[in-house]
Amino acid sequence: MSPVDGDAVERIHRDHARMLEMIDRIRAECGQRNTIQHCNDCHAPHRAVCQGNIDQLIRGFIEATMKHSLIESMFMDDKVPAAHRAAHNQAHMVIAQQLKSIRVVLSEDGNYVHAIDGIDEIHAALISHFRDFDLPLERYLQETDLAPQSGWIAGTRCISENASTPGHTGSEPCSPR
Ligand SMILES: [Fe+2]
Ligand SMILES: [Fe+2]
User: Fold this and answer.
1) Residue pair 137/88 in contact by the 8 Å Cβ criterion
2) Which chain residues have CB less than 5 Å from ligand 1, an ion?
3) Where are the alpha helices (DSSP H) in the chain?
4) How far, in Å, is the centroid of ligand 2 from the Cα of 68?
5) CA 72 / ligand 2 centre spacing (Å)
6) 108 CA distance to ligand 1 centroid (A)?
7) How far apart, in whole angstroms, are the C-alpha atoms of residue 39 and residue 13?
8) Average pLDDT, stretch 40-61?
9) With bands split at pLDDT 50, 70 and 90, how would you rate the model's confidence at 1?
10) b/e per residue 65-87 (b: at least 16 CB within 10 A)
11) N or C end of the chain: smaller count of CB under 10 Å?
12) Sign of CA dihedral 78, 82, 84, 86
């Protein structure tokens, strides 16, 4: 069941705020990014703990972002023009690819400095995505929210129009438009 559209917009905003907050937390975990290129060069005594934290935070961020894309795709069903839906889902695929590359860095390389560089790129991509795709989606959802519900209001108008037509009682079903 899809939520009422006002709730959908609220959910989108909440998810975006959480994703950005997670990015801030990931970036804040490493204080060595300006001085080293690889975690192996880090001499901080807490290196293992910090790597574990970053790993967990990044995996959580990837999961939250993928889930958010799926939720937006669900909100789009029947609510937006097909062209927007196709382009928006394609843009989500591009972000998913970027997230996948970060996951590869975590699994194969273990260089969290590099992984956080990837998070910087994702951050820039998300800011553009919010502006270019999510804002238009929110407008479509808000328009749907304001539009008369099909059926009930359309049917009422149709009956009242029939009522003023000679030979009609006003209670006939609407003819298709
Ligand atoms: Fe989106
Ligand atoms: Fe979004």
Assistant:
1) yes
2) 72, 133-134
3) 5-29, 47-76, 82-104, 112-129, 135-146, 152-163
4) 6
5) 7
6) 29
7) 34
8) 90
9) very low
10) beebbebbeebbeebbeeebbee
11) N
12) positive
Long-range contacts of 102-108 (CB under 8 A, 24+ apart): 102/58, 102/62, 103/59, 103/62, 106/55, 106/58, 106/59
The amino acid at 11 = R
Taking the C-alpha atoms of residue 24 and residue 159, their distance in angstroms, rounded to an integer, is 57
| Whether the Cβ atoms of residue 95 and residue 69 lie closer than 8 Å to each other | yes
11 by Cβ neighbours in 10 Å (0-12 / 13-18 / 19+) ranks as: middle
Phi/psi zone of residue 62: left (φ > 0), alpha (ψ -120 to 50 degrees), beta?
alpha
Going by pLDDT thresholds of 50, 70 and 90, the confidence category of residue 97 is very high
Query: Of the bound ligands, which one is closest to the alpha carbon of residue 137?
Result: 1
Token digits for 21?
């907050």
Domains and CATH numbers, the chain: 5-146 (1.20.120), 149-177 (no CATH)
Q: What is the pLDDT of residues 106-139, one digit of tens each?
A: 888 789 999 999 999 999 999 999 999 999 999 9
Ligand number, closest to the Cα atom of 13: 2
Question: 161 alpha carbon to ligand 1 midpoint, in Å?
Answer: 42
Residue whose entry in the numeric block shows the structure tokens 């901080």: 44
Which ligand sits nearest to residue 17's alpha carbon?
2
